[in-house]
Amino acid sequence: MKTDHLLPLLDAFKIELPSWGFADTGTRFGKFLQDAAAVTIEEKLADAGHVHALTGCCPTVAVHVLWDFRKDQPAEKVASLAKKYGVAIGAINPNVFQDQQYKWGSIANRSEKIREMAIDHILDSIRIGQAVGSDWLSLWFADGINYPGQSDIIARKKWMAAALNRLHEAMPANMTMLVEYKPFEPAFYATDIADWGMALLLARFAGERAKVLVDTGHHYQATNIEQIVAWLLDENMLGGFHFNDRKYADDDLTLGSIDPYQIFRIFHEIENYRFRTGHLPPLAYMVDQSHNLKPKIEAMIQTVDIAQQLYLKAVLVDRKRLGAAQEGEDLVTSENILRDAFMTDVRPLLARWRKGRQLPEDPLAAHRQSGYEAKAAAQRRRNHPDKGGAAYA
Length: 393
Hints:
Elements: H1 7-12, E1 17-18, E2 25-27, E3 30-32, H2 41-55, E4 60-64, H3 65-68, H4 75-84, E5 88-93, H5 112-132, E6 136-139, E7 144-145, H6 153-170, E8 176-180, E9 190-191, H7 196-206, E10 210-215, H8 225-234, E11 238-243, H9 260-277, E12 284-287, H10 296-315, H11 319-327, H12 331-343, H13 347-356, H14 363-370, H15 372-383
Helix pairs in contact: 2-4, 2-10, 4-5, 5-6, 6-7, 8-9, 9-10, 10-12, 10-14, 11-12
């Protein structure tokens, strides 16, 4: 099989790393500490730059406004730090779920004063995004209700729609709003953006530069995520992904650790779209995982590596042959075409791509041989001797 034509596709396949993925995280019961975990934004960007240097496909870093930007630190300084470590700032993530005033919600709070506080914070985030050259405003809301009768569901919908439209109008022309959904947690009765349909409607209410963000862990068991992806693509409403995996629900495990075939099927639908239309929409491929037990950098490299492999496998699907089998209702052949692509060992092809771009053929082995983690751990123990366990992040 000739595969050289696939290598340029890998050049265009970029994955954004999350700053918080390099920091100490845990469960809702506590935080588990690692000596090499990053604390400051500079340490996070240094780690991200190290991963990008080894993999060649992670040029941007998603940042979290409350966790990564100090009030006494100009946003431009963070952009300069990113450049110092060979990366750039990517998606801007506001935080309207952590502070005490958001106990009853943020932009869906019945208090107009608190809704305005949340909107003001997101407007500040947009300004930060402009200052650092970000193209993406990534929004996740913890808003919702825990008990029947607690609040008016439709009033909350209208508050959210109005807020998102106002925020959309404030964005610069180059920025895209990503609206994420989550079926539960922390709102166990009615989350205000509980599924892709709600996110789609709210994005359309917001404006033409608002799209839906699909987190691969934010679904109920047995949800057909690739069908959601296919529909959103066909409606021109898919904005991007948060990559992770889960066994039960939103477990934030490393990509492909539980069900790599599902991620392959998602990439298959994206490639189907490219096959039908001749182009791909600009999608933000972002990692969002909790490396509370795995070493942070190793987990990130592992995720990037498996994402590249699964993407390559999806590109290998013989779509003309698949279309003929589907036309003839040949179920066995149709399924086997997908299976054959999924079972193909693409690691030699990926190694060839890396070698041709002066990258280590095995980035995880290269990281372990580099001594980077031991050096970072020693330095960070000196710089942060009083790290303590507490909340999730």
